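Translate sequence into structure tokens.
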Amino acid sequence: MKRFIITLAVTVFLLTSAVSANLWVIDVSDVPSMDLLDDPSNISMSTTNIAPGMIITGIGWDLTVGTIGTSWRSEARSMWSTGAGPFVYVTPGNGDDSPGTNSYSSGGIIDLVAAGLGYITNHSGTTSIQLYEGYDDYPGSADAYYLSPGTYTLQYTLPEPTFILGACLLAGLLIRRK
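Result follows.
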């Protein structure tokens, strides 16, 4: 019974421990969407502000996409990755299969855990975004542009030391032999 009460107390402590949330806002205004994923002419951006051990918890966007010629707005996409590889692909104009200009918003930060993507820990200290096309209408040239306003936002946290300490205590209680 005593072990159960201690485990319950540590679990409540963990659930109520604060984490500090930070944002990486990327301005993609006037940036072209070029070719297929991983083509060398695509625009990629990265940051080392999201240090190793930080947890990526959310993503959001407020974008205006303008296409060139017959390219569709649904073809402008982004791929997010850390040193461990890609963790999310975003198609802001999903289903908008026609040329032209339109604005898209995620409506705030999307909780990646609630979306079923789990916790993404940044092990390398580098987080990147690559802007690419789902279908390349004009190889070697821009198919679309991200116009103003054009921002992606990545939310990340570093658990507070009390959270880390509590997690260690809980782990110790759970693996302790009788």
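Note: The chain has two domains: 1-18+160-178, 19-158.
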